Records
---
Amino acid sequence: MKNFPNQFSTSPDYMTFTGKFLFEPYKFKKIMKSKKNNRVNLALFIAAMNGWTVFSFAIVCTAIAIPFGSISGGAIGLALSASGFMEIKGRHQLKLRQDNATTLLAGSQLLFFMSILFYSLYQLATFDAQSIIKYIPKEYYDLVLMDVYGTEEAFGKMVQMMHRVIYIVVIVGSLIYQGGLLVFYKVATIRAYK
């Protein structure tokens, strides 16, 4: 039978036996630090991808909307551009472990959601079914209105209902996505400063 190593032994068996008690706390701290860094790195990656995508897309949309005289489109484009820029700036601050990283990253998501919310509410409040009907080609006008819906009023109600559903889905989707990112950024930045 193998003898149990005494407390003064320096044999490999003794070191293996005691090592798990001596070094597990160190390994635990190392693992937790690694997880913290992974979460921060993930936040940096998401902020770069999301920030540059939003900023680039919003700039293009603004450049298209303004020449066509869409004031609401231009306004939402500028607001979303600012949101994307804030996220890019917040990523840079997080990388440097600056205190205002949380404000910028969380604020960018709040600005994005508020912009989508106000734009969607504006579209819902100002929608006119006639603006859709007038774009229906004349050869399909009678087919769509008379054969399918019977009257122009019934078709207008269907269009208005679909319009409402689309913008409600946009609002709820933005709330979930931006709200999730806001919470994630807050957790990631808090961990970055520990």
Note: The longest helix spans residues 12-65.
---
Amino acid sequence: MKKLFITVIIIMLCLSLGTTVSANTKEGFSNSNIKVIEEGFSTFIYEYNGIEISGDTKLSEEQIINMYNAAMNEKVGIMGVDPGNTQVIVIPPMYKTYKNTGAKAAAELLSAYIIKKAPEKAKKSTFGAWVLNKLTGWAKVETTYVGMWTTSSYSSYEQKRVYHNTLVHYKNSNYTTPKSIQYWEATHWWE
């Protein structure tokens, strides 16, 4: 039994170490604010100025900075004609607030059910109260502020314009302080 347990642990460790890159790797970026968190087969996670940027394709330094600037509501041109090497917004930003009322109600209902079904002995002990608090603490569903748009930029690696759909989660309703940025390649929609 011990051998089986140790074998499973070793296999899990080997699999989890396979595709990640150290967070200190710069991958040739001249900007020291860019950190590569993970580069896998189809997952690329960067950090720039404290904001996590994740997606399905590798980005250049310029693309990371442009994506960050667009999320910060910096000026990025709307595409009229093919502008060459710059990044432009092809589909303008749309901002939306999600109140998540249905998710809040479901989480609160589930929390109430857990508390009701907990044994009285657990409710009265310090450790039991702590465990119940941890089990029901996840139920805090907050309002979400989201911005989304499509950008286009020239990829010297692919020798063509590439398109990215961008989804940004913001901290508040003024849509100027991003919490995270996600992107995915959408070039196939434009060819």
Note: Residues 84 and 154 are 7 Å apart (CA to CA).
